[in-house]
Hints:
Blueprint: H1 3-71
Amino acid sequence: MSTADLESENARLRAELENLRLKAEKSRLEAEIEETDKVFGRELKQTLVMVAVGIVIVVVGIAIALVLDGAS
């Protein structure tokens, strides 16, 4: 092989290596995004449950106040 052939092969291999690195980085980022979505979904569900419990507590408190007010 001539020097030009070796340089051409070297450039091709470097480009292929960079392509593989980019694919690996893309896969890593996609996995990270998926995990973030799962965590965000869990946190959102927990927040909605806490809001619902808060609303129930307020409604029950108002109902108790009305019952006690009506009893007096």
